[in-house]
Design goal:
Elements: H1 2-14, E1 21-31, E2 51-52, E3 57-67, E4 70-80, H2 89-97, E5 109-113, H3 138-158, E6 161-171, E7 176-177, E8 179-182, E9 187-189, E10 198-201, E11 208-216, E12 221-228, E13 240-241, H4 246-257, E14 262-267, E15 273-274, H5 281-290, H6 295-314, E16 321-322, E17 324-334, H7 340-353, H8 360-378, E18 383-393, E19 396-400, E20 404-405, H9 407-416, E21 421-425, E22 434-435, H10 438-443, H11 457-476
Parallel strand pairs: 2-13, 4-5, 12-14, 19-21, 20-22
Antiparallel strand pairs: 1-3, 1-6, 1-16, 3-4, 6-11, 7-15, 8-9, 8-10, 11-12, 17-18, 18-19
Length: about 475
């Protein structure tokens, strides 16, 4: 451990020797709201949309570093108001972009979800969706959405011009650990805390707000990326399409800093987090009502306040000659082993829902455990492949993952990273399910049981180590 720490120290000390380069920046945003009713993602039961509470959008940020005419590295980062980037979505986007951008490596395209639970389903077979002229099925929506995303990505790349960047940190109480622990040694997501057997909130909450700011050559603020360790799940439920707290955040920032400001929402390691508190709800509600705000507006007020604190400081250290490095790796993570007890329970539960079209989600949730167990017994399970992106932008590191990653893992990466600031972007490139901590697996409950989790704590630690190694490589170049 001492040797590893010493290596990271050496990497940090030699970082100043890495040559900087001129940064080129471009961006674009697009509306991905369907014009028909769609099934809404994120819940066990089918919900068909019947109105639009706020538009769901996607924002692309193109980055390229150059030394004269020589391109050194590049990246396009796309933030989407979706529950997740489901399997196959990113490949479809890349296929649509590749013929249109001959000077961009599509492997360096990253898409992440903000995890709003009021966005369209993008995967067939999860729900029994009715037919009808006024209904858009997932396959149709995916074609519509990926066409829009491809156009925005191409536009962002074509708009890139020399620009400037700064980074800063504020604080905002958005993330609230959502797992209550009880006297019998169990935990429950959104569990009651006003009972005699309540003992604790399970884990840590990361209230740091990490922010990137981007200006054009004329010193106009054109884009910002906001990393908050909390999913956009305040308004979840109901039948309205909704971008959750990111909508009022964008509206508030654009009102103050320009109507064309591009705002990317990056969700940090937050598999055990929610913006909804487990206790003190009455006092919280009283205060935002006294301010004349809704709960979504209250969350936006906090985020924008933390953003402005970061902006004030970051504005004193704006740079145009920064290092941009981008590594893409495929890593292998071991599947969490299914026990005899777990598969027996899963078989029993799957049988209860089999054959009922209204219970497709519940049937699949349990049957996939059975399928995993059978592959495990046959020796055909293999490993879970994950596309890892690690970026360096000046003094900032960015690391992505597929999962609803418990906050503990994000803190491990941040604490050991050689960067001054480290951004974690979860639910990027694919959807890997929950990745719970050792503590959470011990307590059980939704988000930590085998049905919720393909990868367990052992795989989570491998993810931490591989992320840190990729970041360290960027500081040693």
């Amino acid at each position: 451990m001492r040797r590893a720490a010493a290596c990271l120290l050496i990497v940090a000390l030699t970082a100043a020797a890495v040559p900087a380069a001129e940064l080129h920046i471009g961006g674009a945003t697009t509306d991905i709201t369907p014009d028909k009713s769609v099934a809404l993602d994120g819940h066990r039961n089918l919900r068909m949309s019947n109105k639009v509470e706020s538009r769901v959008t996607a924002t692309a940020l193109a980055l390229e570093s150059r030394e004269g005419d020589k391109v050194l590295d590049q990246a396009i980062l796309v933030s989407c108001d979706l529950v997740a980037i489901r399997e196959g979505i990113l490949d479809k986007i890349r296929d649509k972009v590749k013929p249109r951008l001959s000077d961009f490596d599509v492997k360096k395209l990253v898409a992440n979800a903000t995890h709003t639970h009021n966005a369209p389903v993008t995967q067939e077979g999860k729900y029994a969706i009715p037919d009808g002229d006024g209904i858009m099925k997932p396959t149709e929506y995916v074609e519509f959405m990926t066409d829009k995303l491809a156009d925005a990505i191409v536009e962002s790349w074509q708009k890139r011009r020399p620009g400037k960047v700064a980074w800063g940190q504020g604080q905002a109480v958005i993330a609230q650990n959502r797992r209550a622990v009880y006297a019998n040694g169990t935990a429950k997501m959104y569990g009651a805390t006003n009972t005699e057997d309540f003992r604790a909130i399970e884990g840590y909450e990361d209230h740091n707000l990490d922010v990137l700011f981007f200006w054009d050559e004329k010193d106009r603020l054109i884009a910002t990326a906001i990393n908050v360790a909390c999913p956009a799940q305040e308004a979840e439920g109901g039948t309205a399409i909704h971008a959750d707290f990111w909508h009022p955040v964008r509206e508030m920032l654009r009102e103050r800093y320009g109507k064309d400001l591009l705002v990317l929402g990056w969700i940090g390691a937050a598999g055990d987090q929610s913006p909804r508190p487990l206790y003190g709800k009455a006092a919280d509600q009283r205060m935002y009502k006294l301010r004349g705000l809704t709960r979504l507006e209250e969350l936006a007020r906090r985020i924008v306040g933390g953003w402005e604190d970061a902006y004030e400081g970051a504005g004193k250290d704006v740079r145009s000659d920064v290092v941009l490095g981008h590594r893409v790796e495929e890593i292998a993570l071991p599947f969490r082993k299914v026990s005899e007890v777990e598969v027996a329970e899963a078989r029993q539960e799957a049988a209860k829902y089999a054959g009922d079209p209204a219970q497709l989600w519940n049937y699949g949730w349990h049957q996939r455990v059975v399928d995993r167990y059978e592959a495990q017994q046959a020796g055909t399970e293999g490993d879970q492949k994950m596309e890892l992106h690690a970026l360096r932008l000046g003094d900032v590191a960015i690391a992505t993952n597929h999962f609803e990653l418990y906050t503990d893992f994000g803190i491990r990466i941040k604490a050991r990273s050689p960067a001054i600031q480290t951004f974690i972007i979860q639910l990027a490139c694919d959807a890997g399910g929950y990745l719970p901590s050792e503590r959470a697996v011990g307590y059980g409950g939704y988000g930590a049981v085998i049905q919720s989790s393909r990868i367990g704590p052992e795989g989570g630690q491998i993810l931490v180590e591989r992320s840190l190694a990729a970041i360290a490589d960027l500081w040693s170049e």
